[in-house]
Every structure is written in structure tokens, then in C-alpha cells.
Amino acid sequence: MAEGVTVAEGVEPEWELPPIFCPLDPAVNPARRRVERRAIDCIDQWGLCADARERVRVIGTRSADFYARFAPDAGEDGLLAAALWVYWGFAFDDARCDTGFYRGRPSEFVPMAARIQRALESPVATADGDVFARSLQDIAARFHRAGTPVQFQRFVAAHRAWLVGVAWQIANEARGHMPGLEDYVTMRLHSAGGEPTFAMLEIANGSEVAAAEMDSPIVRALTEMAILVAALDNDGHSLLRELEGHTVQNIYSVLQSETGGPFEEALQAAACLRDRVLLQFLRLRDRVRPRLSEPGRCYVDGLAHGIRGNAEWGLKVPRYGKDGISDDESPGIAWAEKPLDDSREPLPIPSIAWWWDV
């Protein structure tokens, strides 16, 4: 793994993250507080948290507030189902992906993840005592009640892609490998969890998009761009906590590894990359939205809400504080009035350059 930059605990970094450019309107579901209370009751009933500190950490993800920004018009039960998976996903990520026994152990992570995936797919409860499998089956039952078979199977496929991306990330860590930019972007499109998060939009909103629209190149491009913008924003939100004493795979460490330049240049280059993707998202959305059905427009609007909502949530959620628990805002991040890079040229990353050709 490349050496990268670390920040000692209690020491303020000498660099600042560029402001976030996001000319999208904020919105939030008015039911978020009720959904949060209902979700916490479920988390306690599941026994998802091993101890009081872990419970504070999971509840501190503010996942109900998070998804209330993705689906501001969703009904309460649909929003609850989606928010529960977000709480579950953060808990699973902390316990079995980012830290804990499976970190750097791909040969053991993969079979565990496959069993978790099967718990989601199985229509009946299993005898497995795994708390994550049992709670995921409860969420799946809620998805079945709130959504359609098509919507559920789209989520199942997205969930599988997420676990594959996480396995790739863990494999890199196990062999001390820093991916190049092409591989990192491809991996991050999956490992960030954006696919299942956006796949829940249909379930939460109660609106199924026809396959001819959902699977069209332009809607696929919009989905992937929304995932990447949110993933890169999260790389910024979590940067300080992640760099306290260890090296990680994020857009900044990848860019610095490729160029060999100072960390400050990587910060600027990452913001330029992110802004170019967001501007292309906005151009494509404005072009295609008038031609979409009502469910299609609802979905594309949800992608935009998700970009803005994820950025807002990440600025203040305790998860991205220094200890992942304290209720303080992530330092050094502000809003920008204009993009750092407004080029219309495709990014020189082959696996995503097609976004500029649809």
C-alpha cells in the first residue's frame, strides 16, 4: 500500500478540502423524526449492536435523516424500510468491512458475504444465528410489502454488486495494493454502497420504472454518475478520520500515488474530477427528464436529491467526526459557488468515458 498522508490524533491538518459545488435544491421528508424513532425501536429489537457504544455509533449515522433527503416525498413505511437498510449497512460496514475480523481477509469475507446475500434472497427465515442475516431478512420482508417483485430484484442485484465491490477493496488491503485511478473508480462505484442505496428509491417512493427507461444507457449513466459523485463526497467527509494513523484507499491517496505530487494537488484534482462528473449529470438530467414517464422522472429526481442530501448529511453527521461518535461537524468543508473544473470533455478514465457519449 502506498505510504500516503497520515494525521496524528489531535493534530489539525495543514491542508483544507475544497468547498463542495452542488447547485441542487435541498429537500427533506417531513416524516424523518417519526421514522428515526421507529427505526431505533427496530434496531433494539434486532439486537444489532453489541454494546452501548456501538449502539450510539449506529444511531449516530442518522440514517433516517440521510434517506429522508433522498426521498423527500416518500410515504412513511417506504421511507422506514429504506432507512432501516441504511442503518444496517453502516453497522455491517463497520463490523465486517472497514474494521474487525474480516478486514484484510478476503478468503473469509467472501463466504460470509455470500451467506448474507443469500439471507436477503431467501423468502423464508433461516436457522442461521447471524444477527446481520436475521435483521436483513426482516428488512427484506418490509421491501416485499412496500415494493414490487421487480423493485426487490433490482435491489438484490445492487446489493450483490456492493458486496463484490467491498470484497475487491478488502483484497487490495490484504495484499497491500493501492489501485490506480481506473480500478479505483470502478471499485468505488460498487464498494461505496451507492447501488443499493439508489435502488431503494423505487421502493421508498412506491413508483416502478419501466425496464426500457431504467436500463437505457442514459438512465444507467445518470445512476452511475450519482453514485460516483456521492462516493467522492464521502471520501472527503471521512478523510480526516481515516487518515488518523493509517493509510486507506480513497480518491486522494489514489491520485497522489499515481502522480507522486503533494497531497494538496490530489485534493484539487479530486474536486475537479468530481465537479466534471456532476456537471455532466446535470446536463444529461436536463436533456432526458422531459422525455421520461412520471416514475422515470421521480427516479431521476431522486438521484439529484441523493447527491445533494448525501453532501448535506455528510457535513454534520457524527459518523464523520474524529471518533465516529461525537456530534460535531466535519471540519474544513464548505459550499462552493462554482465548479473547480467546468470542462465538457470526457474524463480520461475509459470505464466511465461513455457517460459523455450517451
From TrEMBL:
EC numbers, comma separated: 4.2.3.-
Keyword field: Lyase, Magnesium, Metal-binding
Cofactor section: Mg(2+)
SUPFAM superfamilies documented for this protein: Terpenoid synthases (SSF48576)
Pfam families: Terpene_syn_C_2
InterPro entries, per the entry: Isoprenoid_synthase_dom_sf, Terpene_cyclase-like_2
Homology family: Belongs to the terpene synthase family.
Protein's recorded name: Terpene synthase
Source organism: Actinomadura yumaensis
